[in-house]
Amino acid sequence: MSDINVVAPQLRHSTLLRTSNVPSTLDHVNTRRLRLLSYNIQIGISSRHFRHYLTHSWRHVLPHPESFENLDRIAQIVSDFDIVALQETDAGSFRSYFVNQVEYLAKKGHFPFWGHQTNRNLGRFAQHSMGLLSKLTPLMITEHKLPGFIPGRGVMEVRFGSEETPLILLQVHLALGRRARMRQLDFISNLVNAFEQVVVMGDFNCKSKSYEMDALLNKTKLLEPVDKLHTFPSWKPMRNIDHILVTPTIKINDIQVLSHAVSDHLPIAVEIELPSGTKLK
User: Fold this and answer.
1) What are the counts of helices (DSSP H) followed by strands (DSSP E) for the chain?
2) Which of 194, 179, 92 is nearest to 142 (CA)?
3) Contact, 198 vs 161, CB < 8 A?
4) Which pLDDT score, from 0 to 100, does residue 97 have?
5) Which of 50, 114, 177, 193 is found 20 to 30 A from 17 (Cα to Cα)?
6) How many CA atoms are closer than 13 Å to the CA of 15, on its beta-carbon side?
7) What is d(CA 143, CA 10) in angstroms, rounded to the nearest whole number?
8) What pairs with residue 132 in β-bridges?
9) How far is the C-alpha of 135 from the C-alpha of 140, rounded, in Å?
10) What tens digit of pLDDT does each residue of 55-67 get?
11) What interhelical angle do 211-219 and 178-192 show, nearest 10?
């Protein structure tokens, strides 16, 4: 558990789950290079035009068989990565045929470890969640609830490696409104500043040159995000609102947006290199 007092009342540990019959290909291996992916999958809804927000809107509340075809396509691309952060997943409700989409992708993508954080629980009707897929053994997953005018946003804090020098991954999906995002990024800044090796990734809902992004960079050691990596909308990317940020101790060897148009977002991928001596299990 984090030792920052400001977050202690708002967090809980999440259950780390193991995918059966999937070997831990990276267990007990000291590795410095990792391939990470962040993807807002829009609960398996395919969008190729703005009009689909209207014509496909029913798919946000009702089940549709095409979602499994879309999830299978997503599983193919995420399987090439070591750690995957997923936004806009469903943890098992009527609209997803009561299937936990994170678990489904873990099995299809051959990830031995997975976890999810449900931030907006509407019971049988919807389980708005974020998800983690990992080929490395996480040391701990902690759930943080983010402040906001409308509840339902959170941070997944995932620790890898040792307690002494952990690699911290913070997965986020921020609010649509700027005032709420500012409060949320202020909260996230406290988490970032507690550690040396930190990756923050997810759907920020703001551009790299935005006021709130500048505020985050000024309050932390996070490096400025790469500009012009547009991820939204997937059929005609014009906005860079999905980001992967790192602290200076982590080297970025490559970062790119993948042309994998299933959701209304495109996935963003990065290869990072950790400092010498870092040991991950």
Assistant:
1) 5, 13
2) 194
3) no
4) 79
5) 193
6) 5
7) 8
8) 85, 115
9) 14
10) 455 455 556 888 8
11) 20
Q: Which amino acid is at 6?
A: V
Strand blocks (E) in 113-265: 113-121, 127-134, 138-145, 154-161, 166-173, 197-203, 242-246, 251-257
The answer to whether 166 and 159 have CB atoms below 8 angstroms apart is: yes
Which of the two residues, 185 and 162, has the higher pLDDT score?
185
Average pLDDT, the chain: 85
Where do the domains of the chain lie?
8-273
Q: Using a CB cutoff of 8 Å and minimum separation of 24, what contacts does 258-262 make?
A: 258/37, 258/77, 260/73, 260/74, 260/77, 261/48, 261/234, 261/235, 262/41, 262/44, 262/46, 262/70, 262/73, 262/74, 262/234
Cα of 140 vs its chain's centroid, Å: 16
Rounded Cα distance between 43 and 95, Å, is 9
Average pLDDT over residues 221-244: 92
The closest alpha carbon to 151, from 183, 186, 189, belongs to 183
> How far, in Å, CA of 57 to CA of 122, rounded?
17
More confident: 21 or 227: 227
Residue 238 CB: number of other CB atoms within 10 A? 8
CB count, 10 Å around CB of 32?
A: 14
Element spanning 77, H or E: helix 66-78
3-state secondary structure of 199: strand
Please report, as a single letter, which amino acid is at residue 30.
N
pLDDT tens digits, residue range 118-164?
Answer: 988 888 888 889 999 999 999 999 999 998 888 889 999 999 988 88
Does domain 8-273 match CATH 3.60.10.10? Answer: yes
Taking residues 1-30, what's their average pLDDT? 47
Peptide bond into 237 cis (omega under 30): no
Predicted TM-score (pTM) of the model is 0.88
